[in-house]
Amino acid sequence: MGARELADHQTVFTGVGAPMLATALAQRTHAPHLTMVVEGGIIGPHWKPGWLPISTNEMRAAYRAQALPAITDVFLLAQRGFLDVGFIGGAQIDPYGNLNTTVIGDYDRPRVRLPGSGGANDIISLCRQVIILTVHERRRFVAKVDFVTSPGHLGGGDARERSGLLFGAVSRVVTTLGVFDFEPESRRMRLAAVHPGVTVDDVRASTGFEFPVAEPLRTTAPPTEDELRLLRELDPARQFLG
């Protein structure tokens, strides 16, 4: 479902893992002119099926790339507003789309130490719009993240703009249960669609905060046979499909 949120001719700054897989699927289906940008300094790759990179900094990520600039130049492109979509995930997310990839628990004595920001903070702060792709679990969808690694809409309303974040914003959260957008005024997460067979109660049971539901609530179309075939070809070892 994440791939369907992307459009042809967009420039997509994609994060590692499921966002990479979804972006590669979009290239092979409805968006053949999509340009993928990878944090390690890679622009325009077309990845070989079965050889998806597990890091943004390995050479498999550069397969058939159009350019290999310095990593600082990639982020300079984002600062200049040239990147349409940021496509990332996170360990925790709150009702305003703030992401935590730093620690679970107290910062000084965490229960789990996570990888940190990497380029995620830059992606969510500088791309024109941001789509978050994640597994939908109650432990991930929390009322307040333990640490704001990557700022979404912060405290809601115009908090993001007042903090000096003038580019873009989180526009969609695509999960294994449905799709969220954000209320225009409050900037709070709103359930916009559920996947086939999923109910609103299922989503509430897997979410640690209350959320409004759009009217009408859409049901997403199931994956096609062609989409499933391409995903299995791209990730035959199921590193990202699970």
Rg over CA atoms: 17 Å
Number of helices: 6
| Major pleated sheet | 9 strands, mixed
Structural class: alpha/beta
Sequence of strands across the biggest β-sheet? 3-2-1-4-9-10-11-12-13
The percentage of residues in β strands lies in 15-25%
Helix-strand sequence:
EHEEHEEEEEHEHEEEHEH
Mean pLDDT: 92
Return residue spans where pLDDT drops below 50 for at least 5 consecutive residues. Answer: none
Could you explain the architecture of this structure?
The protein has about 240 residues and is of the alpha/beta class. It contains 6 helices and 13 strands. A hairpin with a 2-residue loop joins β10 (about 170-175) and β11 (about 180). α1 (about 20-30) crosses α6. The two termini are about 15 Å apart.
Short recap of the structure:
This protein has 242 residues and is an alpha/beta fold.
List keywords for this structure.
242 residues; alpha/beta; two-stranded antiparallel sheet; 13 strands; globular
Draw up the topology in text.
Elements: E1 11-14, H1 18-28, E2 35-38, E3 42-43, H2 71-79, E4 85-88, E5 92-93, E6 99-100, E7 103-105, E8 110-113, H3 120-126, E9 129-134, H4 159-162, E10 170-175, E11 178-182, E12 189-194, H5 200-205, E13 213-219, H6 225-234
Parallel strand pairs: 1-2, 1-4, 4-9, 9-10, 12-13
Antiparallel strand pairs: 2-3, 5-6, 7-8, 10-11, 11-12
Helix pairs in contact: 1-6
